[in-house]
Amino acid sequence: MNMTKKRMITLLIGIIAISLAACGPEGGQKPGSVTQQKGADPAASEQASYATLFQTSVFLGDSITEGLSFHDVLEEANVLAGAGKTAQFALEDIDDLVKRKPKHIFIQLGSDDILWPTDNPKEYSLTHYAQLIGMIKEKLPDADITIIAVTPVTAEAEKEEPRYRNIADYNQGLKELAAKEQAGFVDLAPNIADHPNLYDADGIHFKAEFYPLMLDLLKDQVK
């Protein structure tokens, strides 16, 4: 047998082997094939829905807010946040915020503010918070502003850091500030109380599953 015939036979055997591997009984598609897995991933679909709903929004905040992009619930372009961020430090983000041209701005600050080493952390923070809102109104006059209350911590976290007991009082200050500035105000605490399993190990931050719940509670603010 010459080399040409050998090559043709080898090629024919290869084609038959590939055909048999691709087919199951009676020539059907093999289980687990791409054709049988065309269904969309529900989590990916939900994420795309939030990305669309909040595509003209920016979330300005601390490490809790940062979880929105860290867990890939929203794009980084829609989240302007970082660990240790306070109302005072957020003033440095104004130029970046303006560049993003948001129609809706959600501010979630205070978790670090109430720990600030000053005689009156609440007063100190709310003074800068009011300044922050004033600058946003000046540079983005058509944007809607919603203040999100500081999220509660677990009893264990509060025991470890007693200053977290001031969260309710601080949130009352935020609520009054929102009314004064004619901004929206949303308190997530009642819903978090129904889902204690969403806390991360430190009892302060949250697992990825928390953020879709958070956005569900905020979606009316962008309609």
Q: Could you write a compact summary of the structure shown?
A:
It holds the Pfam family Lipase_GDSL_2. Helices cover 47% and strands 9% of the residues.
Q: So what's the CATH class of the largest domain?
A: Alpha Beta
CATH topology of the largest domain: Rossmann fold
Please count the beta strands (DSSP E, at least 2 residues each): 5
How would a crystallographer describe the biggest sheet? 5 strands, parallel
State the CATH superfamily name of the largest domain.
Answer: SGNH hydrolase
Output the structural class: alpha/beta
> Strand order, biggest sheet?
2-1-3-4-5
Signal peptide: 1-21
Protein name: GDSL-type esterase/lipase family protein
Organism: Paenibacillus residui
Keywords: Signal
Question: Could you walk me through the main structural features you see in this protein, from its secondary elements to its overall organization?
Answer:
The protein is of the alpha/beta class and 223 residues long. It folds into two domains: 3-36; 40-222, Rossmann fold (3-Layer(aba) Sandwich), CATH 3.40.50.1110. The protein contains ten helices and five strands. It has a five-stranded parallel β-sheet, with helices on both faces. Helix 3 links the parallel strand 1 and strand 2. The longest helix has 20 residues, at 3-22. The protein is globular and about 40 Å long. Residues 59-211 form the SGNH hydrolase-type esterase domain. Keywords: Signal. InterPro entries: Ester_Hydrolysis_Enzymes, SGNH_hydro, SGNH_hydro_sf. Residues 1-21 form the signal peptide. This is GDSL-type esterase/lipase family protein.
